[in-house]
Design brief:
CATH superfamily of the largest domain: Type I PLP-dependent aspartate aminotransferase-like (Major domain)
Number of strands: 15
Bound molecules: 3-[O-phosphonopyridoxyl]--amino-benzoic acid
Oligomer: single chain
Number of domains: 2
Largest sheet: 4 strands, mixed
CATH topology of the largest domain: Aspartate Aminotransferase, domain 2
Amino acid sequence: MSSETRQWQQADSDHYLHPFTDHHDLGTKGARIITRAEGVYIFDSEGHQILDGMSGLWCVSMGYGRKDLIEAGYRQMQELPYYNSFFQTSHPPAIELSELLAEVSPPGFELTFFTGSGSEANDTVIKLVRRYWDLVGQPQKKVFISRKNAYHGSTVAAGTLGGMGPMHEQTGDMVNHVTHIEQPYHFGLGGDLSPEAFGLQQARLLEEKIQELGPENVAAFIGEPVQGAGGVIIPPDNYWPEIQRICRAYDILMVNDEVITGYCRLGEWFGATRMGVEPDLMPFAKGVTSGYLPLGGVLVGSRVGEVISSQGGEFAHGYTYSGHPAACAVAIANIRAMREENIAARVKTDIGPYFNERWSTLAEHPIVGEARSIGMVGALEIVSDKSSRARFHKDLNTGTRCRDFCFENGLVMRAVGDSMIVSPPLVSEKAHIDELVEKAWRSLDQTLEAVSQG
Ligand code: PXG
């Protein structure tokens, strides 16, 4: 290891408190230092070239090193690097981006509220939903129903909205009026039920919860069209339409968290469209700028939008960086590039199906219990016994070891427990998918060998 890498690791451990990281553990191991990236590859400080199977953190959809995105940010910073849109001011990048987002969004989504991240977008959702029910004279409708193992961000409110156990242990009692139902995770919870029977069963949990709480108290249901951080949980086809039917029957707003699934990841501009539903609100972030600059927001459908924009005074909410000009300029360049390069269609009919087909071959590996994918996200379930879906012993840390083998083999693949997940750039070529699958297979072989030795 070079002395430069060692110095970086030391300074990193001395001064940089990382997100979602055991600081002590990182200090003993030393971080991998990523220094540059190009296309679908990242490079570390030791010169290793690594295929980025996670698009950064589900965000670098258009790949690294895009001159059009970089120049859009640079030009905007020269012209107007920052101005706010409080106090009756506005600026061209935020105006143009909100117009462009309305064009690529499903019908009825004419308004966007900008934030700096997906977590802030979900905090905004909570406040918009509250405001909506207050304005229409039903202020008692306060409860959000979310799902276990959902991820909606890590601010106090968004973290509570999510259903991640460790986060709830640290902050879960700080926000009221949030409750969770079980997730549509067929491999883990479906038992012998067909996907269709399981889809209906899990959706009806929402109906039971609404009846238990009283529909007059329930404000909204929130869910990711496909759960990302929870392990790429792809619901059965009938799940979302049934959720929508229930929301409408009980007059409850439906929120699709599109932070991962938005902007073509599932082969449509939004995951909701892929799932065949029409939500009321769609928080987004990540892929809107391909991660080049931080930007998030909430796309507001007509039901909420018309009330918020025409009634009742000020919506008391906003961030210094709401509609940041440089971030908006990059988002405009990114959305235009997605449109010009037909990225949604590419994912739907070309690279997506190729990825799905190649990824499914990993199910033949002796320790893979399921290889599922949709659009450009996929998961592998590592098991010790395929027929019973039994896992390896927890202490073997099988998923983490597999992830480490992937890194050694030049591939970023994430572990969520013993599920391995990927979210490759939407601009990946077929050769990149072949490389991903070959490296994943090799890493699984090494994992099997390692866990067999204990
Ligand atoms: N909603 C969803 C569906 C997300 O996936 C957020 C909201 C929050 O966005 P911000 O921009 O505030 O991070 C996310 C973020 C992981 C991982 O380990 C996933 C996310 C963030 C960090 C780690 O897969 N998703």
